[in-house]
Amino acid sequence: MTRMPDDTLAVLAGLFKEFPSEPFPIVHLINSSDMPDSYKHLLDHEHHMTVTMESHYAEPVRVRVLSEISQNGCYSRILNLIGEKTGKIVLFGLMRVRMDFLPAQVQSEILARKEPLGRILIRNEIMRKIELVKLLKIDAFPAREHWFHANDQKPYFGRVALIHCLGLPAIELFEVASPSV
After folding, report:
1. In terms of Cα–Cα distance, which of 84, 79, 123, 82 is closest to 97?
2. Alpha helices (H) in 58-136, listed in sequence order
3. Residue 85, Cβ density class (10 Å: 0-12 exposed, 13-18 middle, ≥19 buried)
4. What pTM was computed for the model?
5. How many domains is the chain partitioned into structurally?
6. Distance CA 35, CA 37 (A)
7. Residue 130 belongs to a domain with what CATH number?
8. Distance CA 42, CA 21 (A)
9. Tens digit of pLDDT for each residue in 63-80?
10. Residue 24 in contact with residue 12, Cβ under 8 Å?
11. What percentage of residues in the chain have a pLDDT greater than 70?
């Protein structure tokens, strides 16, 4: 199932609805040409963010789960990807996984919270296709301090993506790159 850009805000609302204490960001749907070049290679692609961030920052990343919930066959979490050497937050994200679309071993590894999602899917050789749904410009608002421990007022950039696993739309993602690219 391919999501059209018109669905982007509905996907975001659904992800944030899982975490009512997380403020919904002010987002603008943008095209690649509207995004600063420094963010394009981090966000405008159909690859795992784990691999992209590790390549960009030249270090492995680890996952830090900030909040999580399991209900109705879905597992959702708010997370950061953090550089293992530097401790720098390189990505803020929300994800929702349809667990019944994944093998039991993969489900267990996701729930263990020890590794980023991309690394788990790659290592388990899960047939997947990453679909970039829409790029986003995110205006300044108070949750930035929570997301990146920063309080600057410049816009952030992110994306909504969908990962199809074994041909099924298994994972919805909201991913925001670090403001210090």
Report:
1. 79
2. 104-112, 117-123
3. exposed
4. 0.91
5. 1
6. 6
7. 3.40.1410.10
8. 28
9. 999 999 999 999 999 999
10. yes
11. 92
- List pLDDT tens digits, range 90-117: 999 999 999 999 999 999 999 999 999 9
Amino acid at the residue 12 = L
| Contact in structure between 172 and 162 (CB atoms under 8 Å) | yes
Pairing of strands 27-30, 156-165: unpaired
- Token pair for residue 117? 């999602």
Which is it for strands 156-165 and 74-83: parallel, antiparallel or unpaired?
A: unpaired
Tally of CB atoms within 10 A around 35? 18
CB 79 within 8 A of CB 63: yes
Range of the domain at 76: 5-177
Q: 32, 85, 35, 79: which is closest to 57 by C-alpha?
A: 85
pLDDT greater than 50 at residue 4: no
